[in-house]
Amino acid sequence: MSKFAAIVGRVLLALIFIVSGASKLFDVAGTSEMIASAGLPGSLAIPVGVFELLAGLCLALGFMVRLVALLLIAFTIVATVLFHNELTNPVQSAMALKNVAIIGGLCLAFAHSQMWHHYYSIKRDRAGELAVRDAERRAHEAELRAARAEGAATARHTGEHVTVREDLDGDGISEPRSRKRRWFDW
């Protein structure tokens, strides 16, 4: 369930960048004016829109999540410093806080993708350990069977009685007699 929630959260976080990048590409003139108002060349409108769109798609699809998260963190920090630096204006301060929250979500996406890589490596190592343990258990059981067979053969040869067998259920086939276990000791 945790992985499902992380994937949904990552897709919703990526949706912000996908929609923002697409709107920048649909309104290149407006985006150029906004970028030029911050003192940057207006020709950055298309590269910024393409970057946001592609990075959002990569984040949503889970492709290179750690690298994309780091790039989007840097991009969001730069966008916050350049475009939302008037903290006395309530709208600008709300946008800056929104960007801080997005940075936090990107940090979680970065950390969670590392966690699953670590989880899969632990799972792979554990599978190897279990295979070794299973092989050792099978070898031990084979040794026990051989020792029991040898002991039974020796007992038959010497005439000792190894196992008490009797017909317990009356079907004509003798079963080994087992001691009944007691649940309470009184």
TrEMBL record:
UniProt key word tRNA processing: no
GO CC annotation: plasma membrane
Chain segments annotated as transmembrane: 37-60, 67-84, 96-116
Pfam families: DoxX (PF07681)
Keyword terms: Cell membrane, Membrane, Transmembrane, Transmembrane helix
Entry annotated with the keyword Transmembrane: yes
Membrane topology qualifier: Multi-pass membrane protein
InterPro entries, A to Z: DoxX (IPR032808), DoxX-like_oxidoreductase (IPR051907)
Subcellular location: Cell membrane
Record family assignment: Belongs to the DoxX family.
Protein name: Putative oxidoreductase
Protein's organism: Novosphingobium marinum
